[in-house]
Amino acid sequence: MRHLLSTKDVTRDEAIALLDIAEDMADVANREVKKLPTLRGKTVVNLFFEDSTRTRVSFEVAAKRLSADVINFSAKGSSISKGESLKDTAQTLAAMGADAVVIRHSASGAPRVLADSGWIDAGIVNAGDGTHEHPTQALLDAFTIRRRLHGSGARGKALDGVTVTLVGDILHSRVARSNIWLLTTLGAAVSLVAPATLLPVSTTGWPVSVSYDLDAAIDSGPDVVMMLRIQAERMNAAFFPNAREYSRQWGLDDERVARLPAASIVMHPGPMNRGLEISANAADSAQSTVLEQVANGVSIRMAVLYQLLSGSAA
Ligand code: ASP
Predict the structure, then answer these.
(1) What is the reported pLDDT for 177?
(2) How close is the Cα of 168 to the center of ligand 1, in Å?
(3) Residue list, ligand 1 pocket, CB within 6 Å
């Protein structure tokens, strides 16, 4: 694997291999010395043109646990036009000898531009591009689901037959897109539940079923309910009447979470709008995997950096 730009490019075998390597990486986190010498001498650049808490820190911890050098480059606030600034920045990073660039950008496709440009000879990891994709989020979600379902016997397994319902702002969600491709590649059945205004105009070609009734979806007892954040920063119009109306119809409130089967899990990629798409009790319930997702994110990003930079499978 040279770059990680989209989960659409990841085969089932590659996905299972990454999840298995992440299991090994998770074991490292339980050791007294949480560090491997694997990427000593390699330089990983975190190039973030958009805000992030979890993802940036997670990649930094992951790279450091593998003994790579990490440079954090926050390009926010640059006044240069985006095309020029990406090229200039990439060439600067190339001159500094970056081996991998982890990029987050508000423009969908920016990581692909970087990978195809020839401006820099480094492994490119998409850490979220506009409304397009966020592959490591989907991988950590798949890892979290697999662990909850199979516990310590998870290695080698896929997600065949697992039912996953994604709820909310599908339209603006790169997390949803990456999950749709990856989870179906791993054999899960994915359904979308959202107001029509927060669905893409067409979902033709997406391997999903679509519905508009959250209560019916909850009563069907899915294995996984993944709530998505309302992406207010990407909204330039009113997509729903008001916050109270949204949470009444589309929010995972206490009553809905109580109706889920006890074994179902509740996921959210963060940051959460508590009280809007998810209630505080639902977010903090035993069924919620929100903090596990954060912890698993480090293991997944270690696995991805390892695959990209060590040049061979484990
Ligand atoms: N943190 C995720 C992302 O960057 C999800 C979100 O922001 O809602 O896409």
Answers:
(1) 98
(2) 13
(3) 128, 134, 174-175, 229, 231, 269-270
CA 235–ligand 1 middle distance (angstroms): 14
Highest mean pLDDT among 22-31, 82-91, 178-187, 230-239: 178-187
Q: How far is the CA of 269 from the centre of ligand 1 (A)?
A: 6
The answer to whether 166 touches 193, Cβ cutoff 8 Å, is yes
Q: Residue 83: pLDDT band by 50, 70, 90 thresholds?
A: low
Contact of 227 with 168, CB cutoff 8 Å = yes
CATH of domain 135-293: 3.40.50.1370
C-alpha separations of 149 from 114, 155, 157, 268 in Å: 37, 11, 10, 17
Residue having the nearest C-alpha atom to atom 1 of ligand 1: 270
What Rg, from alpha-carbon coordinates, does the chain have? 19
Rounded CA-CA distance 218/261 in Å is 9
Q: Is the pLDDT of residue 123 over 60?
A: yes
Same fold yes or no, 7-134+297-313 and 135-293 = yes
Query: Is residue 314's pLDDT more than 50?
Result: no
Pairwise CA distance, residues 27 & 6, whole Å: 27
The domains of the chain are located at 7-134+297-313, 135-293
| pTM: predicted TM-score of the whole model, two decimal places | 0.96
Q: How far apart are alpha carbons 23 and 87 in whole angstroms?
A: 36
Tokens 């919620």 correspond to what residue? 288
CATH of domain 7-134+297-313: 3.40.50.1370
Task: For residue 51, name the pLDDT band (cuts at 50, 70, 90).
Answer: confident
